[in-house]
Structures are given as C-alpha cells and as structure tokens.
Amino acid sequence: MKTVLVGVGQAGGKVATALAEYDDEMGFRAIRDALAINSAKADLQGLPLDTVLIGQDVVKGHGVGGDNQLGAEVMQNDADEVLNELSGRIDSETEAIFIVAGLGGGTGSGGAPVLAKELERIYDVPVYAIGILPGRDEGSLYQANAGRSLKTLAREADSTILIDNDAWRETGDSVAEGMATINERIARRIGLLLAAGEPIEDRSMGLGGGGIDRDVGQSVVDTSEVINTLRGGGLAAVGYASSEASEDPDDNVNVVTSTTRQALLTGTSLPEATTADAALLVAAGRPDSLSRKGVERARSWVEEETGSMEVRGGDFPLDTDDISALVLLSGVEGSPRVTAFMNRAAEAQAETDDQSEGAAKRDAAESFQNDELDDLL
Ligand SMILES: Nc1nc2c(ncn2[C@@H]2O[C@H](COP(=O)(O)OP(=O)(O)OP(=O)(O)O)[C@@H](O)[C@H]2O)c(=O)[nH]1
C-alpha cells in the first residue's frame, strides 16, 4: 500500500521514524514519504524525517504540556501550513495516509483527530490512524486524554489501529527500553501490513534479490484487501507471530496454523481482542514453504475464532527461513480491552472534572456515544 506517513507528537515522530527505517531496511518502499509534526521543537530535532513545528506563536516551541485541547487548537490554527507541507507528498500514486500518535499526551492526542478531519476533507484516499493507548500505570491525565482523543479519532479517521502500550512491553525493561521494543514491534507489524499489499515487482526484494518467482502469486495479498478489511471503520488491531519453517512442506501445514493461532491469541496489539467484524490473514514466507492447505485452514480458524464471515487471506512472498502470520482485525470496539480502557478513561476524566458519579461502568460501544468523555472537536 503506497503510504504517506505522518507522525504527530513525540511518540508519533518516534514510531514514524521506526516504521520508515524498517520499510527502508527491508527494501519494501511502501512508505513513500514521512513527516513528523510537533509543537515541541526539541522532540523534532534529531529525527531523520522532514518536520513541521506547529503552535510556535502560542507555545514558543515548548510543547503543549499534555493539554490535548491546546494540541487540537494549535493543529487547527496551523492546519494550512501542515496541509501545504503534505500536498507535495500526497500524489496520484498514494493509496493511503497513515497518521500515528500517542493518544495520552497533548500534541499527538489533540492534533491527530484534527489532522484526520482536515485530510478527510481534501483527499479521496483512506486516512487511517495508528493510535497508541497509554499503559495502565500511566496517570489519569494520560488516560482521560487518550479516551477523548480516541472517541474523536474513531469518528474522524477511516479506521484507527490501536496499539496498547501494555501489549508488547517486555517485563524488566526500563521505560526507554520498553518504548524502543514497542516501537520496533509496531514497525515490523505495520510495516509488513503496508508492504503486503505491494505488487511483487515493486518490491526491491532486499531479502533475496528478486529470487521470488512471480507466478507463485495467485493468492498474493492485494492492497484492496487491506482497504476492504478496514472499510467498516471504527477500531482495528494487528496480531503477529513467527516460527521457523520446516524443510518438509507437509509439516508447514501445522506451522502456518499454529503460528496464526499464536498471532491472534497471544500476539495482538490489543490483548484479548479476538472477535471482529472483518479480518485479514497474511502468511509471509518463502512461496514453497507457505502451504496452501495451511493458509486455508488458518483462515477458516480465524473465521471461527473471530466470529466473522468476512475473513480474507493471502500470501506475502518473502525470502526468509521463517513463516510469519499477520492478522489484521477490524471492528474490535466490543473487545474487553477497549471496554476496560474506555472505563478507565471515563473514570480519569471524572476524577479530573471532580464528577465521580459520572464514571459508572458501561460497555465500550456506549462510551463512544455518551457524554461521559468529552469530544475534542
Ligand atoms: N509506543 C510508544 N509510546 C510512547 C512513546 N513516547 C511516548 N509514548 C506514549 O505516548 C503518550 C505521550 O504522548 P507523547 O507523544 O509523548 O506526547 P506529545 O503528543 O508529544 O504531547 P506533549 O508532549 O504534551 O506536547 C504516553 O502515553 C506515552 O506512554 C514511544 O516512543 N513509543
């Protein structure tokens, strides 16, 4: 999927960098351009991307200090400059725009929904968001910010892929190490998803220098399958797992199915998200090890497990010794983790508003409709 990537805020800039670097290292060229936007000058310095500093007249390059309403305001005020900067990058080849942001802070949290709205107004290609949820141990301001931002982003973007900061953290990591690990994991998963839809001849095949035969590819994933999977809108998640391929092709039936189970049951960006409205299974590996029977069985298993009748599946030929499974889930609003998060956010907002009686437990679908969490726009 030929993508223009925009990172907003500190987390957005770092994750956009990790993604652009991964795409480049792998030679995928799915990310055609990447831009980082922030109201804090220091967070833009040192990023190997083109950057735009917003809100300079208001916060003088010092960031919005976790105030996401101010984050939304400065993005709105400087929207013309940002759109101008993007207009030279989004062209007739662009198939999707991805905005990535940490939803718990100020600039990314407030800025991402505003930017999504502005881009939707102008461009026909889908505008997707990658929204990073604060970990459970982050303070109430982060939770309340993320709840408000998510509610707004889910409405403004064509789909929002959620990454829970608690999902891929390794125990024992410091916060900085933890972030670096999470960012690498996001880069690999989203990076594969974007590359999976690219035609084979467009890939430089950094892993094998063109050694993949073109006519393997009747079931190769197409960009339109990613877009169709996300068409229902709302919230999405990605799962991923990888195992060594066996030399015996028959054994790879089981390798594909067990790797897919791991991807969905233990490897998703939103733990416990297994029911979905639609899903896409991408099996990556050498064409001769990607067992057709295995991929078909794995796809049927995803159908049963997610309860969705709309599960697409396909291959992603890669010259590696592993078989990887990437599962994209769309329509995960009802998952327990989203419910728990929206309750946590509503409680945090009630705490900050001193209206604790407003924080009764409700299900997540309802929290996207009711007034417990303020809308940002
Ligand atoms: N995955 C990941 N999350 C991060 C990273 N840096 C910060 N976060 C998370 O993002 C949230 C804070 O957002 P930031 O991006 O730091 O804030 P900002 O948008 O720059 O906003 P201000 O600093 O208030 O202007 C918190 O929930 C952090 O846990 C990162 O590198 N990776």
From TrEMBL:
GO terms for cellular component: cell division site; cytoplasm; microtubule. Residues 2-197 form the Tubulin/FtsZ GTPase domain. Coiled coil: none annotated. Residues 343-377 are annotated as: Disordered. InterPro entries: CetZ, CetZ_C, FtsZ/CetZ, Tubulin/FtsZ-like_C, Tubulin/FtsZ_GTPase_sf, Tubulin_CS, Tubulin_FtsZ_GTPase. GTP binds at Q10, A11, G12, G13, K14, G106, T107, G108, E138, N165, N183. One of its GO terms (biological process) is microtubule-based process. Belongs to the CetZ family. This is Tubulin-like protein CetZ. It comes from Halolamina salifodinae.
